[in-house]
From TrEMBL:
<dbReference type="GO" id="GO:0005576">
    <property type="term" value="C:extracellular region"/>
</dbReference>
<dbReference type="Pfam" id="PF00386">
    <property type="entry name" value="C1q"/>
</dbReference>
<dbReference type="InterPro" id="IPR001073">
    <property type="entry name" value="C1q_dom"/>
</dbReference>
<keyword id="KW-0732">Signal</keyword>
<dbReference type="InterPro" id="IPR008983">
    <property type="entry name" value="Tumour_necrosis_fac-like_dom"/>
</dbReference>
<dbReference type="GO" id="GO:2000147">
    <property type="term" value="P:positive regulation of cell motility"/>
</dbReference>
<keyword id="KW-0964">Secreted</keyword>
<dbReference type="InterPro" id="IPR008160">
    <property type="entry name" value="Collagen"/>
</dbReference>
<protein>
    <submittedName>
        <fullName>C1q and TNF related 8</fullName>
    </submittedName>
</protein>
<dbReference type="InterPro" id="IPR050392">
    <property type="entry name" value="Collagen/C1q_domain"/>
</dbReference>
<keyword id="KW-0176">Collagen</keyword>
<dbReference type="Pfam" id="PF01391">
    <property type="entry name" value="Collagen"/>
</dbReference>
<dbReference type="GO" id="GO:0005581">
    <property type="term" value="C:collagen trimer"/>
</dbReference>
<feature type="domain" description="C1q">
    <location>
        <begin position="151"/>
        <end position="290"/>
    </location>
</feature>
Length: 290
């Protein structure tokens, strides 16, 4: 370094002497040209000196890094100065950061109160169906149930007719039938003219009669001793067939029958031996106990 600095000083002094001699003997234009040449030489000299100054540390660093002062089995000892080590960016020579340790327990305060309950969130998506679980244990035997009803089918039906005409002589007169078409289990009594209910349930009944010319037709369908339906036809010069039908809910022991009703005019129904004009039907639709 000292040798390079001396050489640069000699160069600057020679340039100053040459400039002084030139300024004394040359014209102003020549002096200006010479000044420009001297400035260029001065700049070139300064650049060479700077390059030499920058190159010396690198040569020194290269020379220092090649020194080996340990055996083959020993770890090398770094001879780089502590200042150079701190300035290096190599992680092996980086200085660890110092972080203070704070005891968080001395800063912890008391537990606060519980906050208010938040609003319920939105309904999530339906999840996948899970696997089938294991079979549970067998339960205890239950109590016996009520006794069932018999599977036997229950029936009741009748169809009867009358071949003789009938005139009402009394205020009320019961209609008696003389022809039996169907009388299942003899539930219809041909002598009393009444149907007796042995199987409780819902029944269907129908009554068909033929009117008499110029006479009134007035009959009642009776349940026990109560009128439940009427069959009526006004007097006319022409006779017609008249009918009535209904359904009744009967209990065991109840009766259904037909009677005639007489008012101011004569009441009559027509029939003859060769044909049946008066027919009374009934049958069970649905028993009360199945």
């Amino acid at each position: 370094m000292a040798r390079a600095g001396g050489w640069m000083s000699l160069q600057r002094r020679d340039l100053r002497d040459a400039r002084q001699r030139t300024s004394q003997t040359c014209t102003p234009l020549a002096q200006l040209k010479m000044s420009t040449v001297f400035l260029l030489l001065l700049v070139a000299t300064a650049s060479v000196g700077a390059v030499l100054e920058k190159g010396l540390p690198r040569r020194e660093a290269r020379r220092l890094s090649c020194v080996r002062c340990c055996g083959p089995s020993e770890q090398p000892v770094s001879i780089i100065s502590s200042r150079y080590t701190r300035m290096s960016s190599d992680p092996a020579f980086s200085v660890p950061k110092v972080q203070p340790t704070i005891d968080i327990t001395i800063l912890k305060g008391e537990k606060g109160e519980m906050g208010e309950k938040g609003y319920p969130g939105a309904v999530g998506k339906e999840g996948e169906r899970g696997l089938r679980g294991f079979n549970g244990r067998k339960g205890q035997k239950g109590q016996p149930g009520p006794q069932g009803h018999s599977c036997k089918q229950l029936y009741a039906a009748f169809s009867v007719g009358r071949r003789k005409p009938l005139h009402s002589s009394d205020y009320f007169q019961q209609v008696i039938f003389d022809t039996e078409f169907v009388n299942l289990y003899k539930h219809f009594n041909m002598f009393s003219g009444k149907f007796f209910c042995y199987v409780p349930g819902i029944y269907y009944f129908s009554l068909n009669v033929h009117t008499w010319n110029f006479k009134e037709t007035y009959l009642h369908l009776m349940k026990n001793e109560k009128e439940v339906a009427i069959l009526y036809a006004q007097p006319s010069d022409r006779s017609i067939m008249q009918s009535q039908s209904l359904m009744l809910d009967l209990q065991e022991g109840e009766e259904v029958w037909v009677r005639m009703f007489k008012r101011e005019r004569e009441n009559a129904i027509y029939s003859e031996e060769s044909d049946v004009y008066i027919i009374f039907n009934g049958h069970l639709i649905k028993p009360a106990v199945e």
